[in-house]
Hints:
Keywords: Ribonucleoprotein, Ribosomal protein, RNA-binding, rRNA-binding. This protein is an all-beta fold.
Amino acid sequence: xxxxxxxxxxxxxxxxxxxxxxxxxxxxxxxxxxxxxxxxxxxxxxxxxxxxxxxxxxxxxxxxxxxxxxxxxxxxxxx
Length: 79
């Protein structure tokens, strides 16, 4: 099974070797037929502490690294 890849904005880089990425998705409401935005925060592994708040990054699924971290950073988007 392929690993999922998501794109989002770094909202926190306070942890050591960790960042929090906010991923936003849009979908059509089944009854109202209106576009709805939902976001979710993922804890990701950043081995080099290279990513800062506000940057757009891609994250990929990985085996658990800690209690909350199930994702790792692939790289920046657009650079």
